[in-house]
Amino acid sequence: MADPKYRQIADDLSGQITSGELARGVRLPPETDLLARYAASRTTIRDAIKLLIAAGLVETRPGQGTFVTAPPEPFVTVLGPPTGEAGDYTRQPREAWGQRSSAPRVEILVAHGQIAEALRLAEGAANMVSREQEHYIDGLPWSRQVSFYPWSLVERGAIRLIEAGDIEEGIPAYLQATLGITWAASGDTLVVRPPDGREVGLFGLPPDGRVAVIDLSRTAYDPAGEPIYLTVTTYRADRNIFRRSWGSVPD
C-alpha cells in the first residue's frame, strides 16, 4: 500500500534537503507554490510540513515563513552582575548582534511556590509585580525573561515597575536612585527541562521535546541579605553557551 500523499510530499522535500537542493537556512517555497507543485490540498501540504518540523528538518518563524533548519550557531552569554532590566547578563559579542526586545508585559500577581520562597513572601497572600519580555538576536528568538518584584517596592515609591515600558537606565539603577536599594549579591540556578507549548512556539522547537530549554534563575539581594527580585530567563538549549570567569582570564 502506498504511503499517504502528505508523507510522500514530506519524503520528497526531505530528499531535497538531504541532497542540498534545498540548502540549510533557506526558506521553503510558499504554500501556494507547493499546492501547485504537488497538486495537493492545503491540509495535505500542512501535514507534510508538520512531519518535517517533527523531524527537525524545517522550522517556522512567525511572520516570515518556514525555513530549512541550519546548524545552530550558539550565542555566548557571559554571566555577570545585572546591568539593565533585572537579570540582564553581559552578552558577547554584543557589537555583532542585531538585538531587539519586545515591550515589557506587566502583571500584578499573587506569589506562590518557589517564587514566594525566593522573595520571602507569604504564600498566596502577598502581591508581586512581574515584567516579561522576549529578546531577539538577528531576528531569531534568543530568550524569554520574566522578573518578579515584591509589591512593597511599588508601595515605597518605585512606581515605574508597574508601567509597561522600558526602564532605560536599568532597574538596579532605578531602584537605587528611587529607593536607595543597592545590589550586593546574587545567586544563579541553571535548570534544563523540556519546553512547554508556549516555548515550542516562541523558539520554533520540535514538539516532541528532544530540544530542551534552559532556565537561568537569578535572585538579587541587598547588603542586608533581603531579596530584591527574582528573574527567570529561558533559553533554547542548542543555541546558547554560558560562560563565567573569575580573575583576569584572557579572551
Structure commentary:
- By secondary structure, the protein is an alpha+beta fold.
- The chain folds into two domains: 5-68, Arc Repressor Mutant, subunit A, CATH 1.10.10; 75-243, Chorismate lyase-like (Chorismate lyase, 3-Layer(aba) Sandwich).
- The chain has helices spanning 5-19, 31-38, 42-54, 113-119, 151-155, 171-179, 197-203, and strands at residues 58-61, 65-68, 75-78, 90-92, 99-101, 105-110, 127-137, 140-150, 185-193, 213-221, 227-236, 240-243.
- Strands 5, 6, 7, 8, 9, 10 and 11 form a seven-stranded antiparallel sheet that branches. A three-stranded mixed sheet has the order 4-3-12, with no helix packed on it. The protein has a two-stranded antiparallel ribbon with strand order 1-2.
- A hairpin with a 3-residue loop joins strand 1 and strand 2 (65-68).
- Helix 1 packs across helix 3 (42-54).
- The longest helix has 15 residues, at 5-19.
- It is elongated.
- The N and C termini lie far apart (60 Å).
Assign the CATH topology of the largest domain: Chorismate lyase
What's the average pLDDT? Answer: 86
Biggest β-sheet strands, sense, barrel = 7 strands, antiparallel
Coarse structural class: alpha+beta
Question: Nearest-angstrom radius of gyration?
Answer: 22 Å
The CATH architecture of the largest domain comes to 3-Layer(aba) Sandwich
Report the uncertain regions: 92-96
Total DSSP helices? 7
- Overall morphology: elongated
Instruction: Give the CATH superfamily of the largest domain.
Output: Chorismate lyase-like
Number of domains: 2
